[in-house]
Each structure stands twice: as C-alpha cells, then as structure tokens.
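Final report, closing paragraph on structural work. Over the funding period we assembled a curated collection of sequence-structure pairs, and we close with a single example.
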Amino acid sequence: MEWNFMPDQFGYNLSSQDQKKCRKYVGENSSSTKRTQCSGGNSNGMGDGGDPPIFSYRINTVYYNPAVYYEPPVNPCNFSEHLPSQTNWASVRTDGLKIDASCNQTSGTRDLLTTYPERVYCNSSGVGRDTLTTLNSGSRTCKQNGIDQIAGVDGDYDYPQTTGNWYATGSGFGTYVYARDYNSNPHYYNVIPREHCADKSLVDCTLTSVPIAGYPEPAYVRYCSTDAQASSSSVQTGAGKCQAAFDRETSVTPETFTYARYGNFQRVDIVSSVGSYPKVLARTDCAGATCTYSEEMTNFANWYAYYRTRMQLMQSSVGLAFKDVGEDFRVGFMTIKPISSESVNFGTFNTAHKSAWYKKLYSITGDSGTPLREALGKAGRIYAGKETVSGAFTDPMEYECQQNFTLLTTDGFWNGNAGVKVDGSAMTNQDDNAETPPPKSEGGIDSINSLADTAKYYRDTDLRTGALENCPGALGASVCESPGTSEANKKQTMVTLTLGLGVDGTLAYITDYKTALSGDFFEIKTGSKDWPKPVGDTPTAIDDLWHAAVNGDGTYFSAKDPAELTQSMKEALASIEVKLGAGAAAATSTLNPVSTDNDAFVASYTTGHWTGNLEKRSIDPVSGAVSGTTAPGNCVEDVVISASCTDPSSIEANGAGGYNCVTPDVTVETACVGGTWDGVANTCSVPVAASCTGTLKNKVLPFEDFRKIYKNSGSGLDNFTYTNLTPEEKTTFEPAFLSENLTQWPLLTAEQQTLITGESLVNYLRGQTGLDENAEDPINKVFRKRQAVLGDVINAKPAFIGKPTFSYVDYGYDSFKSTKATRAGMVYVASNDGMLHAFNAATLEEVWAYVPSMVIPNMWKLADTAYDTKHSYYVDGDPVISDICVSGCGGAGATWKTILVGGLNAGGRGYYALDITDPTSADGPELLWEFDANDAPNLGYTFGTPVVTKDPDGKWVVLVTSGYNNIPDDSSFYNDEGVKFKPNNPPQFMTGDGKGYLYILDAVTGSKLTEISTGVGTPSLPSGLGKIAAYAEDPERNNTANFVYGGDLLGNLWRFDLSDNSVMKLAQLDSGQPITVKPEIGLIKKKRVIFFGSGKYLEVTDLTNTDQQTLYAIKDDNLATTVADPRGTLVEQTMEINGDVRKITSNNAVNWDSDLGWYINFPETAERQHVASKLILGTLLVPTTVPTSSACQPAGHGWFTFLDFRTGRSVLDDNIVSTMTSSPVVGFNVVYIDGKPKVSIVTADNPTPKLIPGVPFSGSGSGFTRTRSIWRELITD
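Its predicted structure, as stored:
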C-alpha cells in the first residue's frame, strides 16, 4: 500500500524499471527523487503535478473520473451522515479522513481554484523545484499540455519535447523539456482511442476511434515490445507486438511489453467560464441533464479530499460498503503488517464498535512491503486462538459451527515472509495436481508457499481440535465439534475473499469469472490452462491473489474506481451473508395442523428458502393417525419427493416449473448420474418429481397475477397495488430508499436499477416472477429468487371455519347457526410473506389475501437477494376465529358475524380484525379494524394471541396484551446482540414504557375501551406480558369472561378482574422465572386452578441458560395476596429420568381445601416449557424442550408429560408420566376416536404428527372444559 496512485504502468522512457512501471521493485533503484514522479504524500497532491497519463482516469484509474460520483465518506460519529462535502473550493481538505475523536476534520487545506498542481515544461530548469505562480518570467517560458499545442501533432500530450516512448510528441530534442510545478486549476484528460481491438487482451486491433464490427474494445493504452511500435502511426496488431497487460513476459530479458502506446489525450479544465459538463447516470449529484460548474467542482473537491490516493480510495470506499453492515456480524480489523495499535478486536458491529472500527480504518497510513501470505496466516491463527497480535485480539470463536471470513484487500504484489500453519510450522504445497482438481489445482507448476496455499490450508483445516488444545471458545464452551445430528458446519475453517485495487496480473480478470464460458479462469477451470507460478513483486503475485480466493472458497474482486470498489465490497459482504445462510441454516420444518371431519390441514415452512406450504392430509378415523403423504391436488405449493435428496444436496426449482436435486462440488461429468452437469458451477442437477402440484403458482405469471390481495384503505379494504399505498407506505418502496438498502442494488447495472420501482416491487410481492432471479432475460434478474409464492408459516396456527360450531344461548345465535350451516369451509393461514391467506378448504385454491398495514414498511426485505440470512417475520401470529353479536344483541333481532382476529408476533406491533362471515363474497372480507402502537403507545410486538369473549356487561370484546419489547424503536435496549426482535427499518414507533398492559377492545370497531397496566416493567427491562387465558364459567354457551390470567418475562403471574378492571400479581416466581406460555385453567372443587410452566426459548442466549424451570398448579380462590414464593409454598412433587421415560418419585398429598397447589421442578438441566399445556379429561398434557447449548443446533430433544391435574402425580399406578422425544415438541394435536382422545405430537424434525400411544386419561372429566383450540390444531365436531 506504498504508492498513492493506482498501480497501472505508464511507461516512462527512463532507464530504471521502477520508473517505467511507477512501482518499486525489490533490489532495483528506488531513490526518492525518482519515486516522487509517481507518488506523493497526501498533503502535496499527485507528486506535485503530473503528465497527462497520470492525470487521466483511463491510465491512472485513481485519478478524477467525471463519470463517478465521489460520495463523501461515512461519518463514524453518526452513521446516518457523511463527512462534509467540500463546497468551499478555496479551502479543501488535503486529507478529509483525518479526524479527531469527535470526527472533526484536522488536516490542512488547499485552494483548488488557484493552486492545483500541474506539471509544465520550461526552456530552463530554474532553481530547485519551487512552484511557479506565473508561466513566463524574463527569459523563462513554460508550456502546458493541452493548452500550448504543437501544430500538426494530434492530441494534448506534447511536452516534454524529447525522444521517448510517447506517441506523437515530435522528433528530435526540443526546447521545453524542464519539468516545473505550476499553480493551476483543476483539470483532467480524456483519452480518445486511436485503435479498437477484438477483445480485452488488446492484441488483435485496427485503427479506428469508434468500435466497429469485430473490434468492440477501445484501446486507451497498450503496452508494446519496442519504442518504435509504441510510437508508430500504423496499426500494431498480432501477437508479440502490443497488448493490454504491462510486462506480461517477465521471463524474457529485457522484459517485453513495457512501452506505452496511448490514444489521444484531450484536456478538460474545470473552470467557472465553462458552465456545464457531461453527465452520466451514475452522477446522481447532478440535478439536471448536465452537471453545472458548481456540481462538477464540488465532485472534484470531494475526490481530492477523500479519494485522491489509493489509501484514501480504499478507506472511503470500504467505509461506504460497510455502512449498512449490522449487528449480525462481528467484525475486526488488522493491517497486513499488524501491530496492536493498528488493530481492532472482533466485536458485534453495533454503534460503539462500528464507530471505533471506522476511526481506525480512516487513521491507517501506507507502508512499504506487502506480506500478504504472512498476514493471511496470522488471520487464520487468530481464528484458531493461536495469535493475538500482542494482545489486540481475543478469541473470536464463539460457536462450533461458526463461519469465519477474511477479506484481504491489497494491490496484490505480495512479498515478504510466507504464511504458516496453525501450529506455526512452515506452509507446504496445498494444491498440487495429484490431489486437487481444477480450478483450485496449481497445475504442473509445483508452487510452494504461495498465497493460494495459505488460503487453501485455512479453508480445509479444522482450526479447533483436541490435538491443537484449543477447544474452549470465547464463551467458555467447546467449539471443537458440532453434535452428531447437526447439519451445521462441523469444523471451523476460514473463507478467504480477496480484493485487488484494479491491478492486472498475467490473467485477464472479468467480474463474472465464476460463470463465464470463456476467458482465462474458464480455461483454468476446464483444465486447458494452469495458474501462473507466483513470484513475489511480479504480476503473477496478483494472479495468486485471485487463486487464493478460489482456494479459500471465496470470491476475487478487482476494482478500478471508487464506485466499482464500493460495489465489489458490498458484493463481498453479500457473499459472506449467503455463506452464513448456507452454513448455519438448518433443513427443518414445522407443522400447524387443523382438521375438520377427517381432514387435517398441515402448514409447514422450509428454512433458507423461507417458503411455506399448506397440505390437506387425512386422519384415520380408527386410529387417529394423520397420513404422512399428500394426495395430488391437496397442496398450495408443490410437494416434492425429496427422501433421496439429502444434505449436501438440496431441492431447487429449475425455473421452468419443475425441480432438481442439486448436488454441489461435482467436478467431473461422469459423476453426475442421471442428471445434467454444470461444468462451470460444478453441480449435478437430477430431476425430481412432485407428488402434489400446488394451486397457488397457477395464479401468477411473469408480469401478471390473478390474485385478490387487499390492504387497508383507511375506510375499508382496497387492492394491494402501489397506487393504493399511502405516501408514508410508499417510502420504503421508492428507489431512493431501495438503492440504499437492497443488498443487490450496487451489483446491478444501471439498466437493471431502473427496473426497480415501487410498482415493480409491489408486483413482485404479489407473486409475479418476471423480475426475479428466475427470469429468462438476464436484465430482468433484479429481485430475490423465490422457490414458492407462499411464504414461510412458522409460528402461526392455521384456522379452519365452516359451519358455526359454538352453542351460544344468546339471542339470534340459533338462527345464525342455522343459516350458516352449509357455509363453505375455509382455512386461514398467516404467513411471513406479509399476508393472511384464505384458502378454500375443498380445493386449497387461494380465495384472497390481506396485508396488514403494520408490515408494509418492512416488506421490501422480501425482495432482497440476501434474504435467506436476513429473514424477517411479518404476519406470524395465530388467527383466532369467533362468532360475535354486532348489533341488537338484547333481542330477537340480534345480528351475528364471524370475525377473525390476529397478531403479528415478531412481525410488528399491531393486531387486525376481519369480518369473514361470507367467505364466497366477491368483495372479499370486510376490514373491521387495525390496532397498533399509534392507537396504544405502549403496545409492543404482539405475541399475545387475541381472546374473543364477552365482558361482564355482555359486550363482545377482544382482549390483547402489550406483548414483548413495548419500548421505542430507537431504544438502547436493542444494542444488546441477544435481543432477537429488532425494530423495522426505518423505525415505525417511538413510544412505549415497557410496562405490561391488558387492552380491552370493542370487537366490532377495535376502539380501546380500557387498558389495565401491571405497573411493572421499564424501557431497559420490559415486562413482556404475552399470552393470556380468559376464564368463563360456561364458555360454550355464554362465553362471558370474568378473569384473565397471563404471565410475563419477569416471572409474574397476573390476574385481571374484568368486573372492575383491576389487576393483581397472583404469583411471583422465584428467581424471576420467565413465563411465555398461555396458562391453562381448570376447576378443582369449584376453585380455579392455573397451570403453567416457566422458561423462555426466544433468543440465542436462551440456548445456554440452565436456570431451574418449574411446572406450577396454583389455586386462585379469589386470593387477596401474592404467592411470593410458590416453590416454598406449594406441595412439591418430584420426577426422575429413567431412560427414555420419567417417573414420579414422590407421593405427596395435595389438599385443595388448605394447600395452594403443587409444583414440579423439571428434572433435566436447561429443560423449559414454551409450548402451552392442555387439560384433557383430567390429564394435564405438558410438552417441554431441552435445547442444546449451541446456536448451531437450536433444537435438542423434548419430553411429553402427562399428569393427573389434581395431584401432579401419575394417572396410572406405574408412575410413568413422561416420554422422551428425539426432537423438541413444537405442538400437539388431540382428536377424538369414539369419544376417546388420541394425542399426536409434532416435533421439530418430523413434519407429520406422530401418535403417542398410551397417554392415560382419568376419564373423570372433573374440571374438564372441552375447548376447540388446541396447540397447532383446531377440531370441528
């Protein structure tokens, strides 16, 4: 990083090679006098002026380019701002990146209007190298290139007048040959090509200034073997004469291809007398059709202050690329010659760490020497816990499946020491021909200690093993191996990505080298060419930088201007995110079944692709078992036969309506049996059949769809189109927002960017495929590729409704029930594509979908190509269906409706309600209301499932809670990396006090009737009042609720009395055991008993929590005081593990007249309850989870427990009360066969409900309330 110019070569006609190349070579002349011709400190510009090649972006690509917008760098003290734009041109910062701790700029300034350095040539040498303020003085006269032109000579490169390797400079010794520096004005040189060539190698060329058939590539500069070839006015074409690459044949002495053959230079002065300048699409700083003098001058000044040198270009561009990197990354910083003071330890990329990281990035300076191999080895050893750089780095390895990346940025000409292995021993050959196939193989060159060797070693080698004695990770747990059942990365390695600053080696780089079907890399991949043998300080070392990225399973980028560099960096970061998704995402699914008659509607999702499905299965009327297969026509999305497509293979849509099982890393065609081999991507694609063809894909076409999708219009429902969005909703759909937030934006061409509009984004969200990555036309590939239209259905239970099922004795209900007895069945599914979907239960055709207003600002993320690792929740809460009286409820004229109410869980801070009385209405549903944090400032993420009931006054109401994180979206609470539920971007709600609230809403209008606060919770420690249960004495006939019970994350169980809207803390759990499940309510001796378990399973930090959790049964006989220590007050029962079952080992009696209830401590370490219990015929069914202590396998195993609800002991005499499940129970279903309940569990690793045989029931029915709603199931009798 020593030179302050982009290291392209200029071909000076001087004797030493370092001046011809403008680059220092080890062992060659490197005197400071000669070096200043190509370099210079930040304070004195481009070597105090320069000749036209140095002042032309076509030759010296770091110089000012009028086609580039030089965006001011990010401000490390406020990431929503940039460092100051340089609008005072008489006082422009010489190094705008020099800042103090408060981000105030500290460098000197320069008057660009009158003292911009220019090299002129005079007829006398003068004294020293003093800067001239006048061109002519006495006998001294001086000439300027581009102004003082020599008659009859083409172009603006006339001086110095001397023999040499400049074309068209005249012949013989001239007068104006003495270089001086002159205070001039800003200017640059265009280059008009005199030749165009057949391809980028610039070998086969013809004399023409414009492209013609067969010769499309402009030749701004070519490097020739002789001075005569470079200076000739005749065409120079064919091998051995001139080419694009400088000094390609390094084995020849003297070296060939070192004489520059330029096009014609054309000077452009930026002066006030010229009012307009050409504008290209990228110049977004120019408001009109051209750029004004002010706009051009400011852009030039920003280039001077922030991009003038290679180091500045790197710092500013990298800073812009990392601007949107968030807390999902832990980032460190190290120079290639690392010292402690210039390093930044790994840390979560939150505001504080990010600021420190940026300040360090901006503060570094260049140094001689480029020890890339040694530096890459140090990076690998840091990940191995074997290198700290004098204490600068602590162990960065936190998890056994952690993916690790090093992004190496440099000019590419490595030198210095070689890399070493983890144990410090010398690096050996890692990519010899015998064991490594192309493109990683070095071929027959037998290279040792290359950069590629180091990259491959650290990619292939497990960096954490017992033999290395480095198993304990940063969090204290072992990181040496993943559990045997995990599909996550089983060893810790390092991926290497490399970025060269526009340097060309002996190989021709193209941006799409991985997929191109021609070019040097394609020839290497197909075995017809070998990687060049790398030699330090030669262009082959640049090729080795490329080879290192290939061997490190990363990507190589080469950038020649700031815009390209920023884009390349963002592409590198995007590829890191994709790698994280591929390395950490589990191939799991979950079920949410509902059934009517003998149909079960099974909803599922697939991680990574984030797709969902709804399948109609059958329930065996004899056994109660749910079928494991889906019949044709009974699915919303295709069901693919995938049993034989196992990891690392995966099912992929082929873009033509079919599917393939795609296997990676298939390097030879003969290994691809029965499929199609892609020799570029090294994949084998074998067609697989779909056992069920989905219904939803028939409703979408590339640029059209046939779906009814609705949104809130403010007075009802309207079509979900861009036109119907409100101005506020349009904010995140506009290109101005998307250009700053979509991962793919900087990777798209200007033409592709114009395709991204608010209208096209809405059409994409509606399911149209014409602009996603499956599009046939490459230009149209601008949005994320979807494997299905339906988004993932994760936490929301489907809801079925056909005929009314309640037995209310209220006025008018019998008539309503009779009228709707033949109502068509519908299944409602809330999905993380931002919609609630209504499907015809008979055909599974989508009838309509609805988009709640609260999720619209965040829906742009669904189009992001990196969404697989940026997954968001949208409509993720259970839809609840109920019949309510809406008018005339006190008499025979009562009017009844069927309503659906839902929350969003982590998808947002709001609830919605729809009238779904008539599912066949051509107008779709009727929007009753939406209720969000604008209506209730203390409403948080709506994890509480709504409860529809009547209040003691007989009014139909909806009960909802404040949920989780009811605090301002900009709260410092979210700086904690363990917080899972992050606010939307941009933030929506800036209110919330963190206390728990119960809201009582009018069921018809959504108006807030009452809010009851628990008074507990703060913005820094929110209450987390979530799921609630209402107690009604006769829910099937009357459904008037008197009491509501709910727990919070602080370990409090609350009782809300609806008769007077009061609240009481019924119990306070020991050690603040969190409550996340809905309580179950039973009656024992006509006394209310509340059943619930403790534990939290929401965030990564929960995985390692081993606090004791407990199952409770607490009597509420109208308690007036809090049960402050339930485990010290209630009767204890004990349970012990006996293989794959558990038994009750206590026989303690529970006297419900005098005792307050019972409790059982879950016996296994880290066991907790996060799926609600159910009380069925006197048996309490309790699913619990025992997670692994790893974020890499967030599953573990589970227990399904069945207890006598009165005693907390076993129902049968054998004392067996629990059975182990191989994976956590995510839900369970209860169906009735001949009046007897059959229980099926749904586990995280099995999408089909599995019967649990032998679950005992007391049969007494004492206290049993036969409710319709069961976790992940709804039964209609």
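Residues 123 and 176 are 5 Å apart (CA to CA). The first helix runs from residue 17 to 21. We thank the funder for supporting this effort.
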